[in-house]
Every structure is written in structure tokens, then in C-alpha cells.
């Protein structure tokens, strides 16, 4: 049962990050870069974050390098909290979202970073000695 829940957490977190990356592409990365600059974050990081979300999301869905991807995603989430969401508070301020979901995503990614390989993953298929 634990393995099943871990797989679900990995895949769902991957889908959510993939959706966020796709959303940034649909908004236009130039627009996202402009928004980043408006909150004091270098605009080029919009491209980095979008790539991390897209590629990292796919890698989580596939279960490839899950531990490493999770650590990178934690860094992106912590950056989002401290640059864009902290001032709005935990639940938001009515004009912008809070950081409650980011905290949940951080905890899921942290669990994946320390949990090890799960079944139904490329990590297991490629790197387990039993296979």
C-alpha cells in the first residue's frame, strides 16, 4: 500500500508541475519574465522555472531520477514562496495566492527525495540490480 501511495504522489506531483510549466508557455514566457521582473526576480529565471517545471514534471511522471528532480523542485518552490508568496501570507490576501499549496508540494517532494525508488518507475527498471 505504501508503494502505491508513493507512486500516486510522484505521478500527481509530476502532473501538477507539468501543468504549471504548460501554463507558463501558454501565457507566453516573455509575459512571465515580465511578471518575474515586476516582483524583483531576474526575468531569465522565468525560462529556467518553466523548463524545470516541464521537464521535472515529465521526469516525475516517468519516475526518472526522482530523488534529484524532487530536490530541484523543492528549490523552485522555496524560491516561489520567498519571492512571490510570502508577503500574501499562508492563505493569501484576496489578491494573490498564499503559500499553503507550496508547503504541501515541498513536503511531497521531500518525501519523494528520501523515499527511494518505487515500482512502476524508470528508476526501478533501469537501476535496480534485481531487474
TrEMBL record:
Keyword Glycoprotein: no
Membrane topology category: Multi-pass membrane protein
Transmembrane segments: 45-65, 72-91, 103-120
Entry's localization field: Cell membrane
Keywords: Cell membrane, Membrane, Transmembrane, Transmembrane helix
Keyword Cytoplasm among UniProt keywords: no
Annotated signal sequence range: none
GO CC aspect terms: plasma membrane
PANTHER family linked: INNER MEMBRANE PROTEIN YPHA-RELATED (PTHR33452:SF1), OXIDOREDUCTASE CATD-RELATED (PTHR33452)
Family (UniProt): Belongs to the DoxX family.
Protein name per UniProt: DoxX family protein
Amino acid at each position: 500500500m505504501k508503494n502505491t501511495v508513493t507512486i500516486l504522489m510522484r505521478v500527481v506531483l509530476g502532473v501538477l508541475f507539468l501543468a504549471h510549466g504548460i501554463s507558463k508557455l501558454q501565457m507566453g514566457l516573455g509575459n512571465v519574465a515580465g511578471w518575474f521582473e515586476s516582483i524583483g526576480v531576474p526575468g531569465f529565471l522565468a525560462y529556467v522555472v518553466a523548463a524545470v517545471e516541464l521537464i521535472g514534471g515529465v521526469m516525475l511522471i516517468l519516475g526518472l531520477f526522482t530523488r534529484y528532480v524532487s530536490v530541484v523542485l523543492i528549490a523552485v518552490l522555496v524560491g516561489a514562496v520567498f519571492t512571490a508568496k510570502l508577503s500574501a501570507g499562508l492563505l493569501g490576501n484576496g489578491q494573490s495566492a498564499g503559500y499553503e499549496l507550496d508547503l504541501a508540494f515541498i513536503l511531497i517532494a521531500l518525501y519523494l527525495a528520501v523515499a527511494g525508488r518505487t515500482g512502476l518507475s524508470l528508476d526501478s527498471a533501469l537501476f535496480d540490480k534485481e531487474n
